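Reply to dn_fold:

You asked what the input looked like. This is it:
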Amino acid sequence: QDLFKDIYKYQVVNFKNQDITTKDFLRIAECVGTVQKAKPEDGERNIVWEDEGILRVGGDDITGKPSLFSHKHDLDWHANQPSNPNRKELIWLYAYSGTKGSRTSWLNNVPAYDDLPQDVKDTIENLYVYCGFKSGRYSDTKFFKDHIDRDNPVKLVQSFGNHKGLFFPFYQIFEVVGWSEKESNDLIEYLQNHILQEKYMYHLDWNDGDINVAEQILTIHKRWHFEGMGKRILWRIASGHEKIND
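and this is what came back:
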């Protein structure tokens, strides 16, 4: 728990050269927070859980079974389930096999927010947005249904630990609450162009044995095109972080 306090400082934390089982991975995550587990509807969507609380990403050619986000093309910028009021705020990834040559990147929306002009900060301070999913925006996965959740407006400026920044998974944001379509689109486009600067990005070139933990409030992430997705296996956990300060 002390080790994972670094998530509040850095937003993204890596560990190299690990050799763990699914049980190890789950046990570590559960020291930090409650892990999201399978639901009955997951079976209807053919989502395959590698183990309790652990989804497999890729490796379909090896296992012969479908996995989450197994497509070769970009899994574009996103955060974990932004429209879900009960979503988990940490995503854990373990590079199990076949990962060398693939890349995932994170955008840090703390310095991106800090660099905004003050008048823009004042404008967005108390804004809320409606989030959801539309196929083709960041993924064409068939596991998710197109939707906009207008029952759960999400604050655009949020905090995590001692940091303040943008909650801005722009491909999953559809409207600014109370704004016209044009006003919403103009703001989203402006903020998107602002944060998509290399100086706000961190790139991880995967190697087997890597563990990555990233918070999903002030960062968004992207997996780049990788031809070897059929043999690349990552394990994925979504968890809270409420136990870190127990």
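The chain has seven helices and 15 strands.
Hope that clears it up.
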